[in-house]
From TrEMBL:
Catalytic reactions on record: O-succinyl-L-homoserine + hydrogen sulfide = L-homocysteine + succinate
HAMAP family, sorted: MetZ
Residue ranges of the TM segments: none
Lineage summary: Bacteria, Pseudomonadati, Bacteroidota, Sphingobacteriia, Sphingobacteriales
Quaternary structure, from the entry: Homotetramer.
EC code(s) of this entry: 2.5.1.-
Name of the molecule in the record: O-succinylhomoserine sulfhydrylase
Source organism (scientific name): Pedobacter quisquiliarum
Swiss-Prot/TrEMBL keywords: Amino-acid biosynthesis, Methionine biosynthesis, Pyridoxal phosphate, Transferase
Length: 388
């Protein structure tokens, strides 16, 4: 199957048909499974053969989603969880122990920041931050007890980028696990494992569902690492429900066409914003003005669906822009068919101090747009009237 193209795998990799020969894979709502006999039960529990035991471990729908995501991203296998945060927690909790240190990109998803700063320190796990656009901070940031490097690229909402191949080489040299939150790019735009990362994580809640309906998390990597993830997840219970797995697996069938359009629309929006006199700065990976444009071109297929810009006039101008939008939704979510505008300084990043916000590139006038799949003329028209 993996010889085939992305779109074909996303559509044609399916769980085995049942006796009803359905064309579209059905939803398996069952918490547990029957054994043929006592010997079958013993062998399954002893992991001497493959098969379903209990839906906290595996279910035909979650197995299909794992197999498909692994094939799409070039991973040996994977694991799925109820949310993106459960995927991040499960991964870090599996590979870290008391006394270990995590080196992480500074601008990480808000709840990831909370895990690193408030949850893991309770168990004696420390962290430090490095900036994506300053490679020397990564080289210098590695300590003797650093066990995991955690990175989000492109970052949210600053759209900074780091060279993943370079970072993977650095991690390998120091025998550190490189974990990439690949949520913004999806496997269609960026494949961290092929660039040398050990683990790739997705919040499937964003582009993989793509329609704002469900939560989900996905962890991808080698069979050896996933065995350890499984060991932790089977017993701690962050399982994804069969319904969500069924929904997400269907969503993957359209991921490529959706991402193509998200990216096409977003590039047009970014280019338009760059030409506006009351826009101070536009951040988008595939704009030539992006400081890491060359790296973006090297490791991403397209620029993604998120455009961040800074409006002249600070918080007042930003609020004015948001209030004038007629079609865009004001929401903290992203990766939806509907275009969304967010003002990070007063929402997702309001708990940071002004200095911390500046460190992750958020100004009072910063606005993050998640460009949806409405007609691009209508998206541009709405932005244009709100800017004027
Ligand atoms: C949303 C998000 C998460 C968390 O995912 P949930 O599914 O909401 O738990 C993690 N990382 C990034 C980059 C995200 O955007």
């Amino acid at each position: 199957m993996s010889e085939e193209n992305f779109e074909t795998i996303a559509i044609r990799l399916q769980a085995e048909r049942s006796q009803y020969k359905e064309h579209s894979v059905p939803l398996y709502l069952t918490s547990s499974y029957k054994f043929d006999d006592a010997e079958d039960m013993r062998a399954l529990f002893a992991a001497e053969k493959e098969g379903n035991v209990y839906s906290r471990y595996a279910n035909p729908n979650t197995s299909e989603l794992i197999e498909k995501m692994a094939a799409l991203e070039g991973a040996e296998t994977g694991w799925v969880t109820a949310t993106g945060m459960a995927a991040i927690f499960t991964t870090l909790a599996t590979f870290l122990q008391n006394g270990d240190h995590v080196l992480s990109s500074r601008s990480v998803f808000g709840s990831t920041h909370q895990l690193l700063t408030a949850v893991f320190p309770k168990w004696g796990i420390t962290y430090s931050y490095a900036d994506l656009d300053k490679p020397e901070q990564w080289t210098e940031g590695i300590k003797e007890n650093t066990k995991v490097i955690f990175v989000e690229t492109p970052s949210n909402p600053g759209i900074d980028i780091i060279d993943l191949q370079w970072l993977a080489d650095l991690a390998k040299e120091h025998k550190i696990l490189l974990v990439v939150d690949n949520c913004f790019a999806t496997p269609y735009l960026q494949q961290p494992l092929k660039l040398g990362a050990d683990i790739s994580i997705h919040s499937a809640t964003k582009y993989i569902d793509g329609q704002g309906r469900t939560l989900g998390g996905i962890i991808l990597g080698s069979a050896e690492l996933m065995k350890q993830i499984e060991g932790f997840a089977r017993h701690s219970g962050p399982a994804m429900s069969p319904f969500n797995a069924w929904l997400l697996s269907k969503s993957l069938e359209t991921l490529a066409v959706r991402m193509d359009r998200h990216c096409e629309n977003a590039l047009k929006v970014a280019t338009f914003l760059e030409s506006q006199s009351n826009v101070k700065k536009v951040m988008y990976p595939f704009l030539q003005s992006h400081p890491q444009y060359e790296i973006a071109r090297k490791q991403m297929k397209q620029g993604g669906g998120i455009v961040t810009f800074v409006i002249e006039g600070g918080v007042q101008a930003a609020a004015g822009f948001m209030d004038k939008l007629k079609m865009f939704s004001i929401s903290a979510n992203l990766g939806d068919t509907r275009s969304i505008a967010t003002h990070p300084a007063t929402s997702t990043h309001s708990k940071l101090t002004e200095a911390q916000r500046q460190e992750v590139g958020i100004e009072q006038g910063t606005i993050r747009l998640s460009i949806g799949l409405e007609h691009v003329d209508d998206i541009l028209k709405d932005i244009q009237q709100a800017l004027s």
